[in-house]
Write a structure and sequence with these properties.
Blueprint: E1 3-5, E2 12-14, H1 39-56, H2 63-85, H3 91-110
Antiparallel strand pairs: 1-2
Helix pairs in contact: 1-2, 1-3, 2-3
Length: about 110
């Protein structure tokens, strides 16, 4: 049975205790980069792909397509940026989503 000292009060506790039985202080520092899921990064890349499809098939006379594709690209940009800012897993996916969405947005507003 190995013992460690509490991070809050300094009393000796068991090394597997999630909270100190004396003061209630949490003992493990869960890494925010290791916790979480890829849902935001995947959402960003899927939306960026949709925006890219809109940009490739853009018809400059179809106002709804331009507005819809631009809105999708902006949401993809936001999802990728939020995922990076929160330091969640999927950094590479988020960077890819940001780049694809930005290029798609520029193509759409240039049409």
């Amino acid at each position: 049975m190995s013992m460690v000292f509490c991070r809050g009060c300094g009393k000796e506790i068991h090394n597997s205790a999630p909270l100190c039985p004396h003061c209630g202080a949490p003992q493990s520092q869960a890494s925010s980069a290791a916790s979480g899921s890829l849902w935001l990064a995947i959402t960003g890349i899927v939306l960026a792909i949709f925006a890219a499809i809109c940009a490739v098939q853009v018809n400059s006379f179809d106002h709804d397509q331009l507005v819809g594709g631009s809105a999708i690209a902006l949401v993809a940009l936001a999802a990728g940026a939020i995922n990076l800012q929160q330091k969640k897993p999927g950094k590479g996916i988020s960077v890819t989503a940001i780049v694809v969405a930005a290029v798609s947005f520029l193509i759409l507003i240039g049409s």
